[in-house]
## 1
Amino acid sequence: MPGNSFGKIFKFSTWGESHGPAIGCTVDGVPSKIRIDEKEIQFFLNQRRPGSSKFVTQRKEKDRVKILSGVFNNYTTGAPISFIIHNEDQKSKDYAKLKNKFRPGHADYTYEKKYGIRDYRGGGRSSARETAMRVVAGAIARKILSANLGSNFLIRGALIQMGSLHINRDNWDWNFAKKNHFWCPDKKMLKIWENYLTQIRKSGSSVGAIIELEAKGVPVGLGEPVYDKLDAEIAKALMSINAVKGVEIGSGFASAFMPGDESSDEMTLNKGKVKFESNHAGGILGGISSGQNIVARFVVKPTSSILKKKNTVTKKLKKTTISVGGRHDPCVGIRAVPIGEAMLACVLADHFLRNKIFQS
Amino acid sequence: MPGNSFGKIFKFSTWGESHGPAIGCTVDGVPSKIRIDEKEIQFFLNQRRPGSSKFVTQRKEKDRVKILSGVFNNYTTGAPISFIIHNEDQKSKDYAKLKNKFRPGHADYTYEKKYGIRDYRGGGRSSARETAMRVVAGAIARKILSANLGSNFLIRGALIQMGSLHINRDNWDWNFAKKNHFWCPDKKMLKIWENYLTQIRKSGSSVGAIIELEAKGVPVGLGEPVYDKLDAEIAKALMSINAVKGVEIGSGFASAFMPGDESSDEMTLNKGKVKFESNHAGGILGGISSGQNIVARFVVKPTSSILKKKNTVTKKLKKTTISVGGRHDPCVGIRAVPIGEAMLACVLADHFLRNKIFQS
Amino acid sequence: MPGNSFGKIFKFSTWGESHGPAIGCTVDGVPSKIRIDEKEIQFFLNQRRPGSSKFVTQRKEKDRVKILSGVFNNYTTGAPISFIIHNEDQKSKDYAKLKNKFRPGHADYTYEKKYGIRDYRGGGRSSARETAMRVVAGAIARKILSANLGSNFLIRGALIQMGSLHINRDNWDWNFAKKNHFWCPDKKMLKIWENYLTQIRKSGSSVGAIIELEAKGVPVGLGEPVYDKLDAEIAKALMSINAVKGVEIGSGFASAFMPGDESSDEMTLNKGKVKFESNHAGGILGGISSGQNIVARFVVKPTSSILKKKNTVTKKLKKTTISVGGRHDPCVGIRAVPIGEAMLACVLADHFLRNKIFQS
Amino acid sequence: MPGNSFGKIFKFSTWGESHGPAIGCTVDGVPSKIRIDEKEIQFFLNQRRPGSSKFVTQRKEKDRVKILSGVFNNYTTGAPISFIIHNEDQKSKDYAKLKNKFRPGHADYTYEKKYGIRDYRGGGRSSARETAMRVVAGAIARKILSANLGSNFLIRGALIQMGSLHINRDNWDWNFAKKNHFWCPDKKMLKIWENYLTQIRKSGSSVGAIIELEAKGVPVGLGEPVYDKLDAEIAKALMSINAVKGVEIGSGFASAFMPGDESSDEMTLNKGKVKFESNHAGGILGGISSGQNIVARFVVKPTSSILKKKNTVTKKLKKTTISVGGRHDPCVGIRAVPIGEAMLACVLADHFLRNKIFQS
């Protein structure tokens, strides 16, 4: 019931505050006999890690993950897998002055009102630091999926819009996207974004972004009608990421503009197998995966912690202003790419296991 | 675990197929001593009912709801409330010819693959007929919320885009929206939409739509971090509605374009109370309601069942074409308005009750 | 969250009051392509039905079950299966005089205090009438198990103690147990019990009973450590039946008396397969089925509704007395046999499906 | 869905193996602003700790608990509370020889068959070491209950039977029970039990026990009909403890022997308040607490790890024998007392919070 868990069969629960001694995650529902390697998990964690380029926060967190249970001689045993990352470089003092002020765009005010008490250090539980654990869970989810679906299965993500600058889809290159610090799939856009973001950062402001995710090699049949539809679960998963304000599947909001004879993907055969002639549905029909690529997009609002002075109020209800210095990302959307991938992996792993019930 | 339920404390479960003897819903987790009237529920159901204007399907379903349990002398007892609507005017024969063909854009193919068996009559379980029960559950949810939050509490919705035609927000009139069959809040747009949709219908095609929902009078504190955030739950709730392809909260996808100094809503005081100077967040901060209006939008794709001939395949994997006659909505988005309102009400009622745990 | 559902994957939810228009049940999580026949379900329902002999209540309820969804051409579709039984022979007037008095041993007082409102007619939601729906769910559960485990799988139950009279286990005859109205497995005991119960009934009192359940053909591996152990789930399932006050597995409470070298079942081989030399564990080790027969026992307290006058208080807190006439069972334990079997079937079906996650 | 969690609102999840680096627990659903002190939790843990007397295992585990999240300046924040105990004194070598043999009465065989892989060191996940975390969760549960119910609220337990030796209830002294290492409430029995257990231990065998639990000061109204009845949840909670084979509430199995005019507790008034004249129901009516003391009993089978040689088989299906040396409890029932108390506290805390939904 409490909201710190995700998934039903593949289920992970996270705990920990930004400036507590550690953060952690327990992943339950993992089938036995799946090979798990701390290094593989660390690989994904490093993608999200702060301090990796000048365009993301300069906090130095090693984010070294440690497995505490559920893995025996490198294989899962069916028991819950517990992970821990000890917090470092916390600089709690940075936050002391924010103890009595509510940062606009953050959860400070709502946590204070809901709980009557608030760990104000770096956002406490509401900090995006929690997302490190989503990446860990996602790494386990990918292992389950790969072990079952083989090498055709793949999840990947790219940044397709930064602020007002959208990539050109004609230039899309997944290999390129993997190699640059912006997850930018458009070679021609990379330099433009770099200059743009440098300016934004210098101006003391920030900018939003749109991320596109794709899952290949997903079998037909994942998703449970009618409330746990695959797209409904993906929407929840992505919307639960800090700063996300919208999610769409396939053609998404553009579907409104299409006539019905275009928006429903026609079906034909290719070498005796069902083939769809387009993918406006984003790989999901009636809430169930169709075997096409799953395509989802989500928008991340601009970082709320910025240097520019903003109006706010104090805990004791006095007017004041605030300017949040420190080491914040000018575009948190960048680091949201591996988090989005992880959440998509978790939804798919959960539904892959759920679907086993219906296989005879 | 199975996907036919929604909510955790305020929890409803639906059952029934489009052309079975009846459809139904059980609402559990309703506090006792709340006055329930079949007529009030019927009022909401009638808003969604087919056959109400020439712009929606001409199927005639009385959709007469009956309460079977959980209400004693017009008050809830704390026991589960069971509802039933007997199906009428089913014309199952219309669908017999679709037995062996997969309708593009529908769940026919994915259900067949997932379950190996399919009630092909009118979509069976995947039919939007199921949404009648969401409206019933939503009516109960509203009763719980009104009983606790008083008359300030209000949920309403409007169609803001039909096909490529967007309303003018400057003309927004909620009273007008309630009175027309399009839920159109812009008096000047109504006639234009009518002509537009008449043309679409005549051409044998269909069109998508965008709906905007608003909840007023929601207290601060609803929503459970970090995975059951209020916006994450709203996203799931709306995305689970048939034909929905995208959901956004507050400024949504437009957040990508905003600079950070604009997108985070500044705070000030008004008569000693906290007041936000804008509402880009859509009333939710860190996944918890802030006391501002909750604002959500969702997109409904064009009706997939259209007269225009489309390519598809048969169950036995032969190429064929299909043209779906019958009595379908040219814009299913219209009837999605009361369904969206209902789902929003259910999420809020669930979180209103969940939040009680933290109130001392 | 609310308590009207049982199971996680194979999940059923019941609704309805003793004297409302109907009672019902929705079974979700049933795999597709399982043959379902109303007659088979009715067969189990008839075993529990009142009025079947002079030793059980003479209320005449036909208890005719009707399937409303989830079954198409006699096979399950994977959609929720909804059942309804319309209430008959309600004689609500019998209960009007009990409106303001709390019957000792019943839920009248606790429901009144918990909910502040109470459907006093025949116990309302707390009536054992609800258990008819457990029997329906159990019938579905058996179908799932039989379809997967074959004809070796079997669940059966017997009454082993009535009041102070215990059967002689040396006389155990399962075939005999099935044929008599007491589910008595001891031919020599039957006549004694008949005389005994006739006396009890005439004296205006009632008597308790102990039931033993056995499941054969259960594969190794069902049950989820550490909180959803198979025995823990069985304990919950049986204890949730009206009037049950205790549950034990295998040697149960007698384990306290045994030395450790006797109580743990030694293992050996039989034709190359693992064989246990005894079954004190009742077929469950570490919460997981061992392949031996599952053996569980539960005790049902004497019927609380008796003719003998008892002290009680009124709703307005005045002292009074009560004598419950009407048509009550002198030993409700008898009719608890098919209910216990049904609950055991539901637990096993749920865990059979849950265990699929771990099968590769 | 996976079985490593308990509770719905007050929900705890445990992880960790007997001989892994640590064991841990995350408690979610704890209301904010409750004072938590590591020392108080340690107090309860110490009651369960091995090595505390010659009658329990001589393994030396400090069992030092550490809070990692959810508590800020000694108060709960509403965020999940994570606990860890680092394992010490593991002596894994003791278990190496058991790698290929199944210990009778243990989960070795069933885990091997269910998961196809097994952490054989000390039972791995199936070890009773996990119960340390139940005690931690129970300590938090007590804090929630005490904070809300005041000093009248109390949970306590006693050993009432060891092997074949039952206490004399006439000698019952709760204060005495608290002070001796057997939780024996009967001063005259203590010496007898000491001699008895010394003999059992020397003979290389073990013995079972029955524990009685009592909760005082529980308000009327806890428990959710009809499947999450308070007694059903207690049954599940206690049966999930390692080695437990039976649970009963109030008069339990003895109810079978009682006539109906005795077994239902009559009601009267005392100073204008409802008073029950007996407590055969064990404080629960219709699955809801009645305001009387909650009384539950459970039986713990004799320790299965004993010196006496027993028949068993190897992983490769050869016959063999086994004698489990090491440092095992001759009567594990003794250390089950604080575990049983903890589980009862968890059930009550969960239902206390669940009941808030119905309070207006």
Note: Chain C has one domain: 5-358.
## 2
Amino acid sequence: MTPSTLVPIALGERSYDIHIGRGLLGQASAWAGLARPSSVMVVSNPVVAPLHAERLHAALAQAFDLGPARIRQVLLPDGEAHKDWNSLNLVFDALLGNGCDRRTLVVALGGGVVGDMAGFAAACFMRGVPFVQVPTTLLAQVDSSVGGKTAVNHPLGKNMIGAFYQPQRVLADLDTLATLPAREIAAGLAEVIKYGPIADAAFFGWLETHVEALAALEPAPLAQAVKRSCEIKAQVVGADEREGGLRAILNFGHTFGHAIEAGLGYGEWLHGEAVGCGMVMAARLSQRLGQLDAADADRIEALVARARLPVRGPALGADRYLELMRLDKKADAGEIRFVLLQGLGRAVVMPAPDDAVREVLQALS
Amino acid sequence: MTPSTLVPIALGERSYDIHIGRGLLGQASAWAGLARPSSVMVVSNPVVAPLHAERLHAALAQAFDLGPARIRQVLLPDGEAHKDWNSLNLVFDALLGNGCDRRTLVVALGGGVVGDMAGFAAACFMRGVPFVQVPTTLLAQVDSSVGGKTAVNHPLGKNMIGAFYQPQRVLADLDTLATLPAREIAAGLAEVIKYGPIADAAFFGWLETHVEALAALEPAPLAQAVKRSCEIKAQVVGADEREGGLRAILNFGHTFGHAIEAGLGYGEWLHGEAVGCGMVMAARLSQRLGQLDAADADRIEALVARARLPVRGPALGADRYLELMRLDKKADAGEIRFVLLQGLGRAVVMPAPDDAVREVLQALS
């Protein structure tokens, strides 16, 4: 058993730890210190559950001394396209159909979609029940593990309906990443890369050295990348839990990225792919506005490309991009708020002239 | 303009004031001190809106200097039977369809159902937007005004899906009560009466003197009853915002009451009617368990009857009552937690032997 790394997330009475390590999913000890629940509802999907659910259930049964009737599972349809009320309601139906109560523990076993829906269901069921995340994708481990954002999509916008709800623990089992397709690893790397430009130039340099090792899932750099990503996000979120200001820098690449996802229809590009391309767009916009050196924008584009992520967006037309970005929930009374770079490692949130945005979009899509 | 009474609700950074007075709904000054929103979405229903919406919109327009395009309205179908996801989604559709953002103010204009749904929608939309309640029923003024509970029903249970979400202000305009049918006034009085037995024997005595004046909506006693109800609830909620323990005493009468509502189908009896009858059942159960004098149980039954509320439940059969109460979300791993009285003015939460519950139900339904 490899010792796991802890990243503490300090949020007052809502503080919790992220455990990062290999094989955590099958270890009863990973649940030590949590209150014994009356029952457990594991929320997963038909792709992830066959790979991991059996070991997780066994660990839960041992950790909490619960019989099989007290550990239930509900499988949601896979993919961002199903991150909607219908899927969410499957969780409520399962919770109520199995006589779950306020001391039922909801466990999210899967990627960001499962985590968002299980977390939102836990936030709403009886106005809030305990929740633990077991993220099985790189993106979920470095992004959804910290911040407490949960949500479902609405036909008119992504993540429009949701809650801030903190888990009691996150178990990031690095071994689960071995079962992911290369495309999903790359998508996860987009969010890892993000933390460099917005907050940590040294980490960005480290990533330039290790990006291929990360894509190959080499354990030591992988653990380091997940840990550093969670630490940076924790620092930002700790200073701004409910997204008043600073936290917005975590959306670097996301304004453009969400427009790509919405414009193509959710699920066409992976979220991380859209963010990867969005970061290149945001970097070039920063460059065009005189905030970022061309050389640094080049480095960002090069690293995104080496992670095997797209660096050119779909040809939606600049007008459509702008329209979609104005609908984004981060827009403020119709004004798009971009996360731009003032050098590598420093992000600011500001509007940008439509003309400059158009020029970037015309060059990159 | 009559001066309004303020009841401060102390909840740290989520503190707010309840304004109680006549004609508040049409006063721009009632909104003073709140941040200017980017737009306003008034959530109401087809019964309430024709009576009050026009004056409210005019006051909002003046208070926040907003044009008519910035003050929108969405009407939800009336009644507890429609307190579901479909109605909730009408609010989300309206918010997104009108380009609302994080600085949009959601205003609930109506009774408890409108307040619960508007509040839950405000809690979830973009993970939380500002919210003000304008309760137009007595029940909503004395119950939903304090506590931050919002929810929708699920086919398997009432208020199963929801959030704790505090409003920024509550405007309890006593003049709105004049348009209510007598049956709704009586239902509201059930929640007023409740505060006596659980927390304030003197208030119970005051109610014995004034119950007919309250039913006749005499302004001075009405203002006093709303104020004292909100104060008592605020005291209880302030000590236990997220319902860890003490707050459960507010559910006096509700365990039986919810079983009545669920057993008959929501909407058959008004919530307050079910609670009125439920309080008599809970008082008699307290008496049977040796916690409450027969004379005090008699006083409770007499006051409930004088408020023109039912004191006998529907004949669902004791087994069905017990089954429904075990499904209640306040049950703990199948054990029903009753709010019982240890004398007038003092409530405790405890289980009760099934036999005693059956005997009470057989006598009272």
Note: The mean pLDDT of chain A is 94.
